[in-house]
Amino acid sequence: MISKLIEKIQKTNAPIVVGLDPMLSYIPEHIKAAAFAEFGETLEGAAEAVWQYNKAIVDATYDLIPCVKPQIAMYEQFGIPGMIAFKKTVDYCHEKGLLVIGDVKRGDIGSTSAAYATAHLGSVEVGSSAYVPFGEDFATVNPYLGSDGVKPFLEVCNKENKGIFLLVKTSNPSSGEFQDRLIDGRPLYEWVGEKVAEWGEMSMDGAYSNVGCVVGATYPEMGKILRKIMLKAYILVPGYGAQGGTAEGLKPYFNEDGLGAIVNSSRGIIAAYKQAKYADKFAPENFADASRQAVIDMIEDINGAVFGR
Amino acid sequence: MISKLIEKIQKTNAPIVVGLDPMLSYIPEHIKAAAFAEFGETLEGAAEAVWQYNKAIVDATYDLIPCVKPQIAMYEQFGIPGMIAFKKTVDYCHEKGLLVIGDVKRGDIGSTSAAYATAHLGSVEVGSSAYVPFGEDFATVNPYLGSDGVKPFLEVCNKENKGIFLLVKTSNPSSGEFQDRLIDGRPLYEWVGEKVAEWGEMSMDGAYSNVGCVVGATYPEMGKILRKIMLKAYILVPGYGAQGGTAEGLKPYFNEDGLGAIVNSSRGIIAAYKQAKYADKFAPENFADASRQAVIDMIEDINGAVFGR
Questions:
Q1: In a 10 Å sphere around its CB, with 0-12 CB exposed, 13-18 middle and 19+ buried, how is residue A91 labelled?
Q2: Which of B79, B106, B177 sits opposite A134 (nearest CB)?
Q3: Of residues B1 and B171, which shows the higher confidence score?
Q4: pLDDT digits over A59-113, tens only?
Q5: Mean pLDDT score of chain A
Q6: Is residue B265's pLDDT more than 90?
Q7: What SS3 class is residue A22?
Q8: B195 part of the active site
Q9: Within a 10 A sphere around the Cβ of B289, how many other Cβ atoms?
C-alpha cells in the first residue's frame, strides 16, 4: 500500500495529508442548522453535520491531495451515528480516489490486535461471506505492548496490502515523559524506531515499507535522527501549523529521494475559514474554498521550504 | 466511581471481572444459526449472535459478579452492527446492575483524548442537548503519549464520576520489549506506575483513586513492586487462567485491606463450555450455565488462594 501512497504523492506533488477531525465548533452554522433542521439536535444531527462538512471539504480538495486522515475519536464521540459518519467519510474519500489513513491509535495483543486490524484494514468472515468493517488503507497503531500488538497488524497488511503508522515520537509537549527517557544512553523513541525498522522488513512494498511511523513536526532534531534509524519507513508528521511545526523544520523528515514523509494538517485546513489569514476572503459559507486555498498554501510552503521548488 | 466498584466487589465477595470478548468461534452453533436465520450471514447476523451470546452469559452470571469488561475490538471488527452490539451490551449490563469497564485502550492528545473520554465515559453536547455516546463506567487507556493524553480523561472522570485503568505492565510475552527497559536503573513500567500514582491524586474517590492501572497476572514479581508504587490505584489484572496467571500469583496485587485488585477472565468464563473441565457437564446449549459454574470456580480459586477463605 505504501507504493500506492507514494504514487499519489508524486502525482499530486503534495506530500501532505488532510486531517478530517471535525469538531462541532469548527463546522459553520449553516451546515449545523441544516443538519439539525433535518435530524434535530441529536447524535444523528451532529453526525449529519460532520458528514456534510467533510464532504464539502473533500469535494474542494480531493484533486490536490493524495490522502486524508480522519481522526476516529472525533466521530466516536457521537456514538453510533458518529461511527456511521466515519464509515461514510472513508467510503466517500475512496470514491474520490483518495487514500485513507484511519487515525485510530489502536493497539492491543494477539487476537485482540488482530480484531482491530480486521476492523480497520481487513475483512471479517461471517459464515461463508466476508465483509469490510471500516476499510481504511492505513491505520495508526500504538507500540507500547510490543511485537504481540504489532504483528497481527502486519499479517493483515501483508494479506490485504495495507499499511500502518506506529507512534514513535508524538508531537505533544508531554510526549517526552516516557518517550524521551534514556535507555542505555538512547531515548525510548529511538528504541521504538529500531523496532519499527525491524517490523518494517516484514512488510516491504518497493523501496519503502508498509510499516511507517509517526514523528511530530515539533521535534525536528529528533526527526533527523529517527529518519536515519528508519530509512525505509514513511514518516507521518503531525504538528505542522497549529501545533507549531514549521515547513523549514520538516526537511530532516524526508529522505534524499525526496520521499519518506507525509505531513498532516487538520485544523489548519478544515477550519481555515476561521483563521485571520482566510477570514477576509472567505465567508463561513465558503469554508470549503478556504480549505482549498489552505491546501494550496500548505503545499507551496512545504515544497518551497523542503525542496526549493 | 472506584468506590462504587469496591462496594460491588464487597457485596459479591468477588474481586473479578468477566471479559465479554466474543469471538465468533466461541459462540455455540445454535446461537449463530438462529442469528443467521434472522439476519443472514451478514455483519448484522454476526452482531446479533454476539449480542445473544453476551446476553445469555450476563443473565447467568450477573448476580455473582461486580463488573464486566467488553473488549471493544471484538465488536469493532463487525463494523457498525458490531458497535451497536457493543452499546447494547453496555446498556444491558447496566440494566442488570453491573459496572462496565470498556476495554478500549484509547489514548491520544488534547482535544482528541477529550473526544475519546467523551465517547466512552462522558456525554456530548449537540446544540442545547446532551447525549451519552457509549456510556461505560471505566475505560482502559494507553499512557505512551504522557500527561497530555491522560489529563483529558481525568477531567471527564471528575466531572462524570468515572474511572480509567492505565496500561502499566501488560500480560503478553512481548510486553517487556519496551515496558521492561531500564531507565535510571528502573524499568519503564515503574516510571509509568509513578505517573499513575501522581495522576491518581487528581481524582480520588475515598481511599482509592479513579485512576487505576493494568498489570498482567503473568508477572507477579513485578505486580508486587507496582502494588507498592501505586498504593491507591486499583489494579485490573488480565492474564489469569488462559494466559497462564495463577490464583496463588495474585496475592501481591492486593493491598492489606483485601482490596486494590480486580482480576479479569474472558475466554475462561465465556467459552467455559469448550474446556474439558466443563464440556462433560455442559452441552453447548448450556454454555451460559458453564459460564456460571466457571465464575463460581474462579471466585473460589481466587478467594482461597489470596485470602484463605
A1: middle
A2: B79
A3: B1
A4: 999 999 999 999 999 999 999 999 999 999 999 999 999 999 999 999 999 999 9
A5: 96
A6: yes
A7: coil
A8: no
A9: 17
CA distance B2 to chain A (A): 23
pLDDT of residue A275: 96
The span from the CA of A42 to the CA of A291, in Å, is: 27
Cβ-based contacts of A185 with chain B (< 8 Å) = none
Average pLDDT score over residue span A271-288: 96
Burial class (CB in 10 A: 0-12, 13-18, 19+), A184: exposed
Residues of chain A positioned with their CB less than 8 A from the CB of B74:
112, 115
> Is the Cβ pair A131, B43 closer than 8 Å?
yes
Neighbouring CB atoms inside 10 A of B116's CB total 27
> Across the interface, which of B36, B167, B181 has its CB nearest the CB of A191?
B181
Chain A CB contacts of B79 below 8 Å? 87, 119, 124, 131-134
pTM listed for this prediction: 0.97
* CATH for the stretch A2-307: 3.20.20.70
Interval A218-236: pLDDT, tens: 999 999 999 999 999 999 9
Give the pLDDT band of residue A243 (cuts 50, 70, 90): confident
Cβ-nearest to B36 among A32, A127, A142: A127
Of A202, A204, A209, A210, nearest in space to A147 by CA: A202
Residue of A nearest to B177 (CA): A146
